[in-house]
Design a protein that fits this description.
Blueprint: H1 2-22, E1 30-39, E2 47-59, E3 62-78, E4 81-92, E5 104-119, E6 122-135, E7 138-152, E8 162-173, E9 180-192, E10 197-209, E11 214-227
Parallel strand pairs: 1-11
Antiparallel strand pairs: 1-2, 2-3, 3-4, 4-5, 5-6, 6-7, 7-8, 8-9, 9-10, 10-11
Length: about 240
């Protein structure tokens, strides 16, 4: 068991070390607000889906300049293996002039595979995603990998009235130079109120890199997630995490 935990958590440790070396912080602390409604697969149904709304601010609860509206359809290929196809609309404004038209309008589609491992208290999510993006009409590809660890504190599983911590790191790559585009690291504290509602709040750092600029930004991230549970079915064990 210990060997399996080490092998599965080693990629996250490496990513966190790399992130700490490159993320020179700058600017003010921003705010991310995320609201997600999920219809997951269960003991009877393989099909599911989700919708998510997100906003981001340049400062703490001020200068909201970025908005997302997205959703997807999922299918449980096997136990702990879930495929998903998603799409979304993304609006970015200039935070110094919020009354001006958006600087970037993006339409996005993606294909995704999520693999979950449940090792006693340690819940591990591996997420692989390929994105097709249209930014102001210009097409781009992007590829993402996220590893996420969730550890419940007062129960062995994520169940009603459970406190938990969540840590993830995600790498963003593309097929054009420079291939490395972004690194996103988060650590959060959460609470599962009942079988449906959970809330997380914590620190999120996003480092962006391009040929002409680079930089990172600290954020306070607040996430509200609601799971729709079908009647007369047994919900499967899950990792409470965002779909972003």
């Amino acid at each position: 068991m210990l060997k399996n935990i080490v092998l599965l958590t080693l990629p996250l440790i490496i990513l966190i070390i790399c992130s700490s070396k490159v993320n020179a912080q700058n600017g003010k602390t921003g705010t991310w607000g995320i609201a997600t409604v999920t219809l997951p697969g269960d003991s009877t149904h393989r099909w599911g889906g989700y919708i998510e709304l997100q906003s981001r601010a340049n400062e703490l609860f001020n200068q909201f300049f970025y908005y997302e509206t997205k959703g997807g359809v999922s299918y449980d290929i096997a136990k702990n293996y879930t495929a998903l196809i998603g799409t979304g609309r993304y609006v970015t404004k200039d935070f110094t002039n919020l009354d001006a038209p958006p600087t970037v309008l993006e339409f996005r589609m993606w294909e995704q595979m999520t693999i979950n491992n449940f090792l006693d208290r340690v819940k591990i999510e591996h997420r692989y995603r390929a994105e097709q993006r249209w930014l102001n009409g210009i097409y781009r590809n992007r590829f993402r990998y996220r590893i996420n660890l969730v550890v419940p504190l007062n129960h062995r599983k994520i169940q009603p009235q459970t406190y938990f911590i969540s840590v993830f790191d995600e790498v963003f790559l593309n097929n054009k130079i420079p291939h490395f585009e972004r690194n996103r690291f988060s650590t959060a504290f959460g609470y599962q109120f009942d079988k449906s509602l959970s809330v997380q709040a914590g620190y999120l750092d996003q480092y962006n890199y391009s040929l002409i600029s680079e930089g990172a930004k600290n954020n306070l991230a607040i996430t509200v997630m609601y799971r729709i549970n079908r009647k007369n079915t047994t919900p499967k064990e899950h990792v409470p995490t965002t779909h972003d």
